[in-house]
Amino acid sequence: MAFRPRLYFFVGYPGAGKTTAANIIHDLTGAVHLWADRERQKLFPEPTHSKSESDRLYSLLNRRVVRLLRQGKSVIFDTNFNHKTDRDLMRKLAQENRAEAKLIWITTPKTIAKNRAIHKSHRDRNGYRWTMSEAQFNSLSSKLEPIEDYEQPIKIDGSDIRVEELKTKLGI
After folding, report:
1. CA 106 to CA 121: how far, in whole Å?
2. CA 46 from chain center: how many Å?
3. What gap in Å lies between CA 90 and CA 148, rounded to an integer?
4. Contact between residue 18 and residue 78 where contact means Cβ atoms under 8 Å apart
5. Is residue 11 a contact partner of residue 81, using CB atoms and an 8 Å limit?
6. Domains within the chain, CATH numbers bracketed
7. What is the DSSP string of 150-163?
């Protein structure tokens, strides 16, 4: 059977551990790591996170995902797919490009994720220009739409991400 590229994408609270998991997956598989936060900073010297800015960013990243999948490369799309329609789009892009879609749900308890996300160490570690406020965390986390059974998420405990657990659950 021929190799099928994979598209890894995430859902979880800010501070849940999505980027930590993405980095581990990259180290294990060599898949291309597209980190939306870093790409936003490259595109926009003073990011506003406005709708038009986000639309431009994700349009560009979605095209890059398609190009990479068509080249037979696996892709880690490191951002939060809060909305079901966005998760459905990722599955559609994977299917159209003969790739396997892997939704990874980082199931960190909300209190742990919030403490991480609003701490300045999160900003420093990820190279952000600002520290997330509690109000921003609450706003972002309230937009997380429930994961449906058909989405078949791979659940990873983000409070203690383990390499062996990722390898096993992702079949790496």
Report:
1. 20
2. 22
3. 15
4. yes
5. yes
6. 6-170 (3.40.50.300)
7. GG--EEE-TTS--H
- 133: which DSSP letter? P
> How confident is the model over 119-126, as a mean pLDDT?
63
- The pLDDT tens digits of the residues spanning 66-80 come to 999 999 999 999 999
Tokens read off for 137: 């965390």
Residue of 127, 114, 102 whose CA lies nearest to 38:
127
Side-by-side strand order, sheet with 6-11: 32-35, 75-80, 6-11, 100-106, 154-156
pLDDT higher than threshold 80 for residue 81? yes
Q: Which residues have C-beta within 8 Å of that of residue 42, sequence separation ≥ 6?
A: none
Q: How is residue 30 written in tokens?
A: 């060599």
- Length, in residues, of the chain: 172
Identify any residues that bridge with 75 across adjacent strands, giving them in sequence order.
7, 32
Q: Chain-centre distance of CA 64, in angstroms?
A: 15
* Gap between the Cα atoms of 8 and 101, Å rounded: 6
Q: Which long-range contacts (CB under 8 A, 24 or more apart) does 121-128 make?
A: 122/15, 126/19, 126/37, 127/37, 127/38, 127/41, 128/37
| Single-letter amino acid code for the residue at 99 | A
Residue type, 110: K
